[in-house]
Design goal:
The chain has 7 helices and 15 strands. It is α/β, with parallel strands linked by helices and 267 residues long. The chain has a single domain, classed as Nitrilase/N-carbamoyl-D-aminoacid amidohydrolase (4-Layer Sandwich), CATH 3.60.110. The strands form 3 sheets. The chain has a 6-stranded mixed beta sheet with strand order 6-5-4-3-1-15. The protein has a 6-stranded mixed beta sheet with strand order 7-8-9-10-13-14, covered by helices on one side. It starts with a strand and ends in a 19-residue tail after the last helix.
């Protein structure tokens, strides 16, 4: 299986519409790939909080239209990263879109874990509530977004739902790049799954981005890693390695669930 991760430089001097056209051309250039992955909030920038409201769009808005056409033109499965979605009730969500090679919207995932603690995304956007998987001919994708990477229980849930390849668009800051690499490998090892993590380059609202998109196999080996700037990271991998790894080292079968909360001991 061939996957291309497009690590987009989100330049604040480039208009959203211009970036949509440019990214559409980049996707079309990946004809021949099985799967193309874009980063988180590449239309506006993951840390450009002031633009979330003005740049928000419905699921069937201009990014949907542009990326559906690009996926169809290239004949690829396209994880189009995420957009600031405005729901019918006005709530904003950080929502990922997945298109089939015919340009149909197959899945939408609203980010569950919002970053910012008491500011930014955490207060401006609603939280998703549903785990989302997507069945491709070669593998089943499990969807997460950026900050989700820090919460292993989400990915356990995806594995229980059949996920074999974990796809994670992100706008990860440079100052925590070591965590990005470490956690991507940890999620791969503990779930015995491939991890395809696609970040952004450039600077969003004064926050330098980590870049370094990465593909990790079920043993935690890094198959490919990008640099800091805009780059297309392409890798060939064998989805069958997930089943082989889980058979050879069946650690997932030894999970112990439903443990009781310990009682407080009193002297």
């Amino acid at each position: 299986m061939r996957a291309s991760l497009i690590q987009i430089d989100v330049n604040e001097d480039e208009s959203v519409e211009s970036r949509r056209r440019r990214v559409g051309s980049l996707v079309r250039g990946q004809a021949g790939a099985d799967l193309v992955v874009l980063p988180e909030l590449w239309t506006t920038g993951a840390f450009a909080y002031e633009g979330f409201d003005s740049d928000a769009e419905p699921l069937d808005g201009p990014t949907h239209e542009a990326m559906a056409k690009a996926a169809s033109d290239a004949g690829v499965w396209l994880h189009a990263g995420s957009i600031p979605e405005r729901a019918d009730d006005g709530t904003l969500y950080n929502t990922s879109l997945v298109f089939s090679p015919s340009g149909d919207l197959i899945a939408a995932y609203r980010k569950i874990h919002r970053f910012g603690f008491d500011k930014g995304e955490a207060v401006l956007m609603g939280a998703g509530r549903e785990l989302v998987t997507v069945r491709l001919p070669e593998t089943t994708l499990g969807l997460g977004t950026c900050y989700d990477l820090r919460f292993p229980e989400l990915f356990r849930g995806l594995v229980d739902a059949g996920a074999e390849t974990l796809v994670l668009p992100a706008g990860w800051p440079e100052r925590r790049r070591a965590h990005w690499t470490l956690l991507a490998q940890a999620r791969a090892v503990e779930n015995q799954a491939f991890v395809l993590a696609c970040g952004t380059a450039g600077t969003h609202a004064g926050v330098p981005q980590a870049g370094h998109s990465i593909v990790v196999d079920p043993w935690g080996e890094v198959l490919a890693e990008a640099g800091a700037g805009e780059e297309i990271l392409t890798v060939e991998f064998d989805p069958g390695k997930v089943a082989t790894t889980r058979e050879q080292f069946p650690a997932l079968k030894d999970r112990v669930l439903g443990l009781e909360t310990p009682r407080r001991q009193t002297p």
